[in-house]
Specification:
Blueprint lengths: L2 E3 L20 E3 L1 H11 L1 H22 L4 E10 L5 E5 L12 E5 L4 E14 L1 H68 L5 H36 L7 E3 L3 E3 L11 H25 L2 E15 L6 E15 L7 H67 L5 H35 L4
Parallel strand pairs: 1-8, 2-7
Antiparallel strand pairs: 3-6, 4-5, 6-9, 9-10
């Protein structure tokens, strides 16, 4: 295994080729996986469609500024004509006050048709709605980036897990070679009656345990690769393996940027401020529309001897003015709610910033610690391997016992596990640091 520092030529760890993978399996880099996910991942596709929907809503809001032209028509047949009470003084000036005569007006057939035009000259609700949809589109864009960041984080985590499992299999293969070599030697010695059958059985047990561990790790690797394929959005039948070299960046070299969480909260604040502005405008500013209508009205009578159907034109143009005077303090209550929401959002923004600062500090400390642990544990693996080889040589010379060999083997495996654990912690801290500094 090899952990490569791109800023400093320090060799930390070298991952050997994973022997269990078919020779025809294509090797994918982490960047290849991320690029494929951007095209194939269903969640990212949904987020992209949400951006398209938000853009359409913005256009819908702007379309309210365009003139509205409508055609209206209706026909009414009165079985009973409208009735009015007419003062008698209308017909006779000498008639006493307070007396009325029943009168019916109109004809049975009424037809009307007109073309109406309405042009908004000024409407604070429309302009506020347009501003809100623009900010909402910005929010959808940030949510897409957040989804992409989360997908990239999951893919990177799975990719690193696959690399670690491959490294673990490499260690197990090496340990199995050592154990089988030892078993062959002890079997020969047992045939020569120089060791007991119990010694042989102990090594056989060790070989069986290593074989079982390798089978378990192989199964876990298959599961991780399948999860990686699912997250990328490709078919589980696609055959590929991950790279065998882990590449790291220099410790704590990421430029800190405004996190997506902070940008999302800031955009939420802009949206709330826009809504508050719209409420205040609709509370104090009028709405003005230019209106016009042109049409015809028809009156008809179908009884003999005066049957007729006559049409008369009707048209007008004007300005419609609307100003809110009092609506039961409903708008005032909404304004107060928005002010509280903005205050809460400010608190949330400060909380996100404080949390981000703490996470960056912890991730940097964890990354430095695990980085140093990798260097130390790598040397420990080499030392444990030398001790095991020397103990095995001493056993052949009759100086070391089987117990000493098994102890040296256990020490080697512990050193290997410590090294893998350090690499895991390093990769986790590096991935977390990338995420919270906006460099994922």
């Amino acid at each position: 295994m090899k952990l490569v520092n791109t800023h400093k030529p320090i060799v930390l760890f070298t991952i050997l080729l994973f022997s269990g993978v078919s020779s025809f399996a294509q090797q994918w880099s982490l960047q290849h996986c991320l690029d494929s996910a951007q095209v194939n991942n269903k969640n990212l596709q949904i987020a992209t469609n949400n951006i398209a929907i938000s853009n359409q809503k913005e256009k819908e809001a702007k379309s309210n500024l365009l003139p509205k032209l409508t055609v209206n028509a209706d026909y009414k047949y009165f079985t009973d004509l409208p009735t009015q009470l007419m003062p008698l003084s209308t017909f006779n000036p000498l008639a006493p006050e307070g007396q009325y005569k029943v009168a019916q007006f109109g004809v049975p057939h009424n037809i009307s048709a007109n073309l109406q035009l309405a042009i908004p000259l000024y409407n604070p609700q429309i302009y506020g709605g347009i501003e809100a949809t623009i900010i909402a589109s910005e929010m959808k864009g940030l949510q897409y980036e957040k989804s992409k960041e989360q997908i990239y984080f999951e893919i990177s985590n799975l990719y690193y897990n696959a690399q670690i499992l491959q490294a673990k299999i490499t260690f197990l293969d090496s340990n199995l070679i050592n154990a089988n070599r030892l078993l062959s030697n002890l079997t020969l010695l047992h045939q020569q009656l120089l060791v007991t059958g119990t010694d042989v059985e102990k090594v056989q047990l060790q070989v069986a345990q290593l074989t079982t561990q390798k089978s378990t790790v192989n199964s876990k690797l298959s599961q991780v690769i399948n999860a990686l394929k699912f997250t990328i959005g490709i078919s589980s039948e696609r055959n590929f393996t991950v790279e065998t070299t882990i590449v790291s960046n220099k410790v704590n070299d990421y430029n800190s940027q405004v996190s997506l969480d902070s940008r999302i909260v800031q955009t939420q604040n802009k949206l709330l401020a826009s809504e508050l502005k719209t409420l205040n405008h609709t509370r104090y500013l009028p709405s003005i529309n230019l209106i016009g209508s042109y049409g015809t009205t028809g009156f008809g009578y179908d009884k003999e001897p005066n049957t007729f159907l006559d049409f008369y034109p009707l048209g007008f143009a004007g300005i419609q003015f609307s100003y809110p005077i009092f609506n039961g303090t409903t708008t005032l209550r909404k304004v107060n709610q928005k002010k509280i929401e903005i205050y809460n959002n400010d608190l949330k923004l400060n909380l996100v910033k404080d949390q981000n600062t703490l996470q960056v500090t912890n991730a940097k400390m964890q990354k430095i610690t695990s980085y140093l642990t990798i260097e130390t544990s790598t040397q420990q693996v080499k030392l444990a391997q030398n001790i095991y080889n020397n103990t095995l040589l001493q056993q052949k010379q009759g100086v070391a016992s089987l117990t000493e060999i098994l102890l040296a083997d256990n020490a080697l495996r512990e050193a290997q596990q410590t090294n893998l654990s350090a690499i895991i912690e390093y990769l986790k801290a590096d991935l977390e640091l990338k995420k919270i500094t906006g460099n994922l």
